[in-house]
C-alpha cells in the first residue's frame, strides 16, 4: 500500500498491484476499484489473432526484472496471465498464431521461448530442448513467424546461429547462413506471401531475408541476402532499423531512425535487379516546393497497416501518425498533448481488423482508438448499418460494415435521389449523416447501395433517420 484515506466507515487504500481498494471497516468487505485495462503499464509488444489481443508485459531491458506476465483482451474483457515463476522475467516479444487465437508464443529476456494454449503454459524452449542458443546464460527470442507449412521460425539474439525453426512434428534446427549473420542483434520478423522471411537487425546491422525452399531442415538449398536500405541510384539510407510491415499490395515498409523507406518489389530480394528502397516524398502544399519526406527526422518504431491499406506509424518521440495508402498525405496525428496517449514513445501498434480498433503500446501503457477502416474480403459478409435507426440526439458517424474490398457506397432518399457517396475504407464505409452541401438529412428512410469495382458484388440495405 502506498497511501490510505479514511472516510466514515470506509478506508481507501492505494495498492500498486490492485489499484484502489475500498475497504468497509464495519463489514470487513473489500471492493477493488481499477480502470479496465492491463494490470501494469509495462508493455513491450502486441499481437492479434482474430479478435484476441495479446500484450507482452515486459521491456527489452534486463534491468527491469518484471515478472513473466502477459495480458489479453477479448470480448471487451481484459485478463492477466501470470506465469508465477520468479526466475522468468520480461516477456518482451510475442506472436499470436494466426490460425488459432488460443495459441501464442512469447519470448522472455533470459529464459527462452514460452508456448501457451488457452492461457496455460504447455512448453518452454531453451538451449536444452531446442536449437535456440544462449548468450551466456541468456536465451533471447526477439521475433517469431509461421510460414505456410506451419513451421515456426524464431530470431535468436546475438548467437552463432541466430535463426531457428521448429517444424510441426517438433524437430528443431538452427541456421547461421555460412556465418553471414553470426552474432547479430536480431529484432522483428515478417513473412511475405511467398514465404520469404525478413529480419531486421539492431544497432545499424541492416536487414536479412531468406527462403528455405520448402525444406526447413535442409540449409543447402536456401536463398538468403543480407543488405542495407539503398536507393535506385545507390544512395545509402539509415542503417538503423526499428520496424517493418507488409501492406495489402505486398510492399514492405521499413521504419528507420530517420523516416520510412518502402520496397515496392520485395520479391526481388535475392536477385539484385530492381531491388531497392524508396523514400516517400510528401505531396507539396502551397508554394513550398522543397523535398519533404515522410517523417524524415523521426525514428519510426512501429508500423501497422489497416483495412484500407493506410499506414499507422509510431515514433520514438512524437506519437502516432496515420498516412494515406501511398504515404504521401498525413491524415491524422496523436500525441500526449492532444490525445489520451500516455506517452509519445510508441513501442508497437496492433489492429483488430474486424472492428477497426487500434491499440497503441507505449512505454507508459496501452491505449486504443476506434478506427474507421476494417478488413474487407472478396465478398460481402453480414452487412449492416449502425446505428440504425439514427436518433435525433445522435451526432456521431454512421458505419456500413461487412463490405468487400474496393466498394463504392451511395446513400439515396427513398425516391432514389443521391444525397451522399463515398468509397469504403477496407470493409467499412463511414458517413456523417450530411448531404454533399453539409446539411443534415431529413427524417425518413434512406437506401444504401454498395457495389465493388466490377459490379460482381452488390448489396442494398436501408437506414432510418429520426430528426
- Uncertain runs: none
Q: Structural class given helices, strands, pairing? A: mainly beta
Number of helical regions:
0
**Strand order across the largest sheet:** 1-2-3-4
Based on Cα principal axes, name the global outline: globular
Tell me the helix content.
Answer: under 10%
**How many strand elements?**
38
As a percent range, the share of strand residues is: 35-45%
The average pLDDT value, as a whole number, equals 93
N→C terminal distance: 52 Å
Largest sheet: 4 strands, antiparallel
Write up what this structure looks like.
With 467 residues, the protein is mainly β. 0% of the residues lie in helices and 43% in strands. The protein has no helices and 38 strands. The strands form 10 sheets. Strands 1-2-3-4 form a 4-stranded antiparallel beta sheet, with no helix packed on it.
Amino acid at each position: 500500500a502506498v497511501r490510505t484515506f479514511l472516510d466514515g466507515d470506509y478506508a481507501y487504500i492505494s495498492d500498486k498491484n490492485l489499484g484502489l481498494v475500498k475497504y468497509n471497516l464495519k463489514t470487513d468487505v473489500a471492493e477493488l476499484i481499477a480502470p479496465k485495462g492491463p494490470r501494469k503499464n509495462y508493455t513491450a509488444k502486441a499481437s492479434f489473432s482474430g479478435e484476441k489481443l495479446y500484450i507482452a508485459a515486459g521491456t527489452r531491458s534486463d534491468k527491469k526484472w518484471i515478472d513473466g506476465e502477459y495480458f489479453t483482451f477479448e470480448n471487451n474483457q481484459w485478463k492477466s496471465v501470470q506465469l508465477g515463476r520468479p526466475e522468468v522475467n520480461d516477456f518482451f516479444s510475442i506472436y499470436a498464431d494466426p490460425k488459432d487465437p488460443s495459441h501464442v508464443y512469447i519470448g522472455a529476456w533470459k529464459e527462452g521461448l514460452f508456448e501457451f494454449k488457452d492461457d496455460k503454459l504447455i512448453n518452454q524452449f531453451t538451449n536444452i530442448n531446442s536449437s535456440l542458443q544462449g548468450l551466456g546464460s541468456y536465451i533471447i527470442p526477439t521475433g517469431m513467424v509461421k510460414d505456410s507449412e506451419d513451421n515456426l521460425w524464431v530470431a535468436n539474439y546475438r548467437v552463432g546461429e541466430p535463426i531457428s525453426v521448429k517444424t510441426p512434428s517438433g524437430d528443431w534446427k538452427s541456421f547461421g547462413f555460412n556465418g553471414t549473420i553470426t552474432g547479430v542483434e536480431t529484432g522483428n520478423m515478417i513473412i511475405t506471401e511467398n514465404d520469404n522471411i525478413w529480419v531486421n537487425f539492431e544497432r545499424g546491422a541492416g536487414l536479412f531475408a531468406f527462403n528455405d525452399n520448402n525444406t526447413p531442415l535442409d540449409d543447402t538449398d536456401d536463398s538468403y541476402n543480407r543488405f542495407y536500405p539503398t536507393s535506385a541510384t545507390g544512395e545509402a539510407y539509415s542503417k538503423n532499423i526499428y520496424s517493418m510491415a507488409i501492406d495489402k499490395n505486398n510492399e514492405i515498409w521499413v521504419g528507420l531512425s530517420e523516416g520510412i523507406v518502402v520496397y515496392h518489389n520485395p520479391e526481388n530480394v535475392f536477385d539484385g535487379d530492381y531491388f531497392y528502397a524508396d523514400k516517400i516524398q510528401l505531396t507539396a502544399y502551397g508554394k513550398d516546393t522543397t523535398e519533404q519526406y515522410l517523417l524524415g527526422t523521426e525514428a519510426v518504431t512501429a508500423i501497422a497497416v489497416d483495412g484500407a491499406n493506410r499506414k499507422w506509424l509510431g515514433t520514438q518521440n512524437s506519437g502516432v501518425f496515420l498516412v494515406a495508402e501511398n504515404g504521401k498525405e498525413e491524415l491524422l496525428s496523436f500525441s500526449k498533448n492532444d490525445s489520451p496517449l500516455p506517452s509519445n514513445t510508441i513501442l508497437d501498434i496492433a489492429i483488430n481488423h474486424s472492428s477497426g480498433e487500434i491499440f497503441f503500446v507505449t512505454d507508459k501503457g496501452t491505449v486504443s482508438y476506434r478506427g474507421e477502416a476494417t478488413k474487407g474480403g472478396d465478398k460481402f459478409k453480414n452487412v449492416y448499418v449502425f446505428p440504425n435507426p439514427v436518433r435525433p440526439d445522435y451526432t456521431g458517424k454512421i458505419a456500413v460494415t461487412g463490405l468487400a474490398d474496393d466498394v463504392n457506397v451511395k446513400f439515396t432518399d427513398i425516391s432514389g435521389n443521391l444525397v451522399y457517396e463515398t468509397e469504403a475504407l477496407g470493409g467499412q464505409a463511414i458517413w456523417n449523416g450530411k448531404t454533399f452541401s453539409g446539411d443534415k438529412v431529413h427524417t425518413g428512410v434512406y437506401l444504401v447501395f454498395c457495389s465493388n469495382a466490377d459490379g460482381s458484388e452488390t448489396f442494398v440495405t436501408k437506414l432510418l433517420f429520426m430528426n
